[in-house]
Hints:
CATH architecture of the largest domain: Alpha Horseshoe
Oligomer: single chain
Number of strands: 4
Distance between the termini: 45 Å
Number of domains: 2
Strand content: 5-15%
Shape: elongated
CATH topology of the largest domain: Leucine-rich Repeat Variant
Structural class: alpha+beta
Amino acid sequence: MIFNLKPTNFFLEQLDNLSFKSRQLLKDKLELLKLNPTRNKRILGYNLFLFRIRFSDSRKEKRVIYLLDKKDRSVLYKFARSKNLWEKRISIISTLWFIRNNKFNDTLKISEILLKDSHDLIHKAVGWMLREVGKKDQGIEEKFLKKHYKKMPRTMLRYAIEKFDEVRRKKYLKGDI
């Protein structure tokens, strides 16, 4: 599978400040990233579409941001079902881009997949993304919570309801919803 890379305006602005050698290094790195954007350990992805690339040029570390434009979201579900903690975490945190664009379906489906995960970092990430959904549409978050809150790990639930008023928070924690 080859991913398409689409430069952001910020990325293009950064190119102007790079030397020829830096641009060549970056071009080579981007070619590798097209084949597998998660392979390179020097990429820190905070959502599936936006990544930072670090590389050294003349003993100075450079950072460049690029945008991964991939319409096929199946990679998110593949990561959510992975045994690798970081791939699972990337799968849910990557949905932040969708949440900010008022598309909650993938966040909710991946949250369901990760409900029974045992790692606290996954609990925190899922709770955080559910809270972000609630910031955009609290009704959708509450519908999901009413269906799943009794099965949710405590940390996940606490993160998800953090912005609720105290009375509703306590009801969720006591199981009285």
